[in-house]
Amino acid sequence: MNNPFDLSGKVAVVTGANTGIGQAIALALAAAGADIACVGRTPADDTVQQIRALGRRAEIISADLSTIEPVQRVVDEAVDKLGGLDILINNAGIIRRADAVDFSEDDWDAVIDTNLKSVFFLCQAAGRHMIAQGSGKIVNIASMLTFQGGIRVPSYTASKSGIGGLTKLLANEWAGKGINVNAIAPGYIATNNTAALQADENRNRSILERIPAGKWGDPSDLGGAAVFLCSRAADYVQGHILAVDGGWLAR
Ligand code: NAP
User: Fold this and answer.
1) Is 236 annotated as catalytic?
2) How far is CA 158 from the centre of its chain?
3) Which of 14, 27, 39, 94 to probe ligand 1 with, by most ligand atoms within 8 A of CB?
4) Could you give the domains of the chain?
5) CA-closest candidate to residue 108, choices 69, 54, 146, 162
6) Is the CB of 248 under 6 A from ligand 1?
7) pLDDT tens across 23-65, in order?
8) 110 C-alpha vs ligand 1 centroid, how far in Å?
9) From the candidates 120, 156, 188, 216, which is the catalytic residue?
10) pTM higher than 0.90, yes or no?
């Protein structure tokens, strides 16, 4: 009853919940008691099935977040279908790889629009609802490239560095209104997003050599951090970027 990590009765919106980190976070929040709106362009049927098997409610909200067109509808549909909005996980994201000298405007815009612009406007739409109710938790999915430069991913690095600053700005503006805005920075996690790196023998070896834990992370490794930041246990945590990286940044 008095578990500070209990999310019973809370409604969470998770973007990109059909696979990878978003699916794992959706399942972790549901296991902690939350009902989940699974937002994305690919229907999260498998995630919804698993959440319902846990005894929680789950709904699919179709939205392509490459533009901000669906942003207000996402918030409205979550409230309509699940009766509220207490938690927003901004997880959906893409990456494009090319040398900086060759990088195209399309690869710049696509990544910035999905990873940064849509995230801000989804925070804004959810934030208006949360400010009106006097409470809410927002968790943005950052990256090691929130702290480091990376290589051959200029728009991704810019977007994830932007997520770090945006998370702090929103925390500054909304902490006094009962809303917590934080971020999780995953290290190297085995998902579709990193399939190319895992398949590249040399990159894979050099990555593994640098990770103190000596292995790629599993999407489920992010679950505990997400539950914590979405729970009462994190009520006084603001503008923090929590690395879940097997020790990568400590190296
Ligand atoms: P993933 O398996 O490729 O999943 C990305 C998710 O984002 C998918 O659900 C995808 O939907 C969704 N998405 C992409 N573009 C979208 C759009 N326009 N509209 C709606 N949804 C869209 O990758 P992941 O590794 O789980 O990545 C999740 C987040 O973690 C991303 O923000 C990524 O940058 C971040 N991250 C990942 C790692 C890592 O090592 N894996 C490390 C640091 C940060 P579709 O299935 O329809 O494409």
Assistant:
1) no
2) 16
3) 94
4) 11-245 (3.40.50.720)
5) 162
6) no
7) 999 999 999 999 999 999 999 999 999 999 999 999 999 999 9
8) 13
9) 156
10) yes
